[in-house]
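quick one
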Amino acid sequence: MNTNKKMWFKRLFKYLKPYIARFLIAVVFMSAFAGLAASLLVVLKKAIDGIFVNKDFAMLGIAAVSVPVIFALKGLADYGRNYLLNYIGQNVIRDLRMELYEKLISLSHNFYVQNSSAKIMSRVTNDLNALQTAIVKVPASLVKDFLTFCGMLIAAFYLNWKFSLIVFIGFPIAAIPLVMFARKIRKASKQGQKQMAEIYSSLMQMLLGFSVIKAYNTEKHEELKFKEENDKFYDFALRVIRVDSRSSPIMNFLGAVAVAVVLFFGGADVLNGAWTAGAFFAFIAAVGQMYEPVRNFAKVNSQIQSGLASAERIFEVLDEEPAIKDAADAKILKPFEKSVVYKNVSFGYTGDKNILDVFNLTVNRGQSVAFVGHSGSGKTTVAALLLRFYDTLSGSILIDGQDIKEVTLKSLRQQVGIVSQDVVLFDDSIKYNIAYGSFDASEQDIIEAAKNANAHDFISALPDGYDTLVGERGIKLSGGEKQRISIARAILKNPPILILDEATSALDSESEKLVQDAVDKLMKNRTVILIAHRLATVRNADNIIVMDNGRIAETGRHEDLIRMENGIYKNLNELQVL
Ligand SMILES: Nc1ncnc2c1ncn2[C@@H]1O[C@H](COP(=O)(O)OP(=O)(O)OP(=O)(O)O)[C@@H](O)[C@H]1O
Ligand SMILES: [Mg+2]
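structure w/ adenosine-5'-triphosphate:
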């Protein structure tokens, strides 16, 4: 094992540690299993010799009672082992799954930009499954199979040391193909594991892009892509099965050869009277029972390897640090009073290009500031920075003079509400979606917020009203309906600072006007950052910022901006009026 793997193993062991007592009990069960299996051979020998050779009737009774008793005890020991190891496995996996979820939910936007959902899904499902299998099977192989093999070997030696020696030497030779098989299986199953992530990814793409696939008639194209991934997985899976199913017949054949050898030489000994018939049969049974443990044992390395590979992928996620987190001495941001200031802010998503370049802006309390400008000019980015979805590269954002990097994320985000450009709804009821984040809101508050967002009428017209389920990502609602629910959510949260990013873009003129009224009302006691393409929406803002290439190109009120010669705003306005 290289040092890396040792490290994974050590870390994994930490998760197993709380269950060490149970593990030791499982070891006792496994030892008992091996001992009982060996003792069965002794009974077998005694029974055959006593009953068939010596015609001892008393033995008949003893055998008739002890065989089922030993089997029952063996079964009990196996039950105990199976239950305890699975108990440990399930517990470790539950702990890890929870920890993974907690980590994933704590990570920042940049992690999700870099890692596809399918890749993440496959770690939480596939890799955890593989690890669980390893946790349950590896100790069983290492302890139960090892002890059973030893028990059989001791019994065999006790029955006939000469033949045992032959078998003992023969076994390592028989194990060679098994070890070779295990290596092949490990490689193919590793590839299969990776391929499963590709299948997830393909499926996820289809689910997300379903409408486009239909509209562009690309079902066949997607099918072929999926087929390729699916067939690749099939190939890896079959490769595993092909190699794995080879080991059984080969072992059985070798076993038969061993039995033949023993039969040939040993049979003569029995006829000579040098060896009893009971010992002979018990010996053959012992040798026969050695194969299964050896077979399992040969696989144990591949199980360890695949478990560790999965553990590595799981720990990789657990080791991710959220890019954005509270500073060690983070303070609570006091209720907003004066101003939001962007001071010399520069920012880029990637190292090579700055989206915002020495950006300066002051928004005073109660003011509404509107952002307009070409698509991609950085408007949403300005909003994302205020919520600390990303940190500025240089410069700082101050709320009431307090750098937002120095306050807790919780207290910051409590004060800022956002209606984002891409509306996010959860697969639950309308009520749940409006109250999301304000879970203690009363029914009355929810309806009030919906009314203010001009959503109450359409919600009431639905058969299930506020209990209507919106479907995944709100698929059962229209674009404008989704937008109004998301506005209601922000209204209910009632934050002092509100960001509306294209919040009314999907509304018809009439609803837009109504929502605009609501927004105007909202703006009264609030500081609002309004992002919009349609200039009609921003006309009443106290200050309009025209963004161009990460910089502020123009700023002022509507009346001032339309008078600027060659101004971007003036141009946009003329285009939109036309
Ligand atoms: N996660 C990201 N990683 C890399 N680049 C990004 C990311 N998000 C946005 N960008 C880039 O940053 C630039 C500004 O994006 P932003 O979303 O702020 O524009 P916008 O002004 O809101 O545009 P629109 O009016 O179309 O909404 C764009 O060029 C975009 O390609
Ligand atoms: Mg945008």
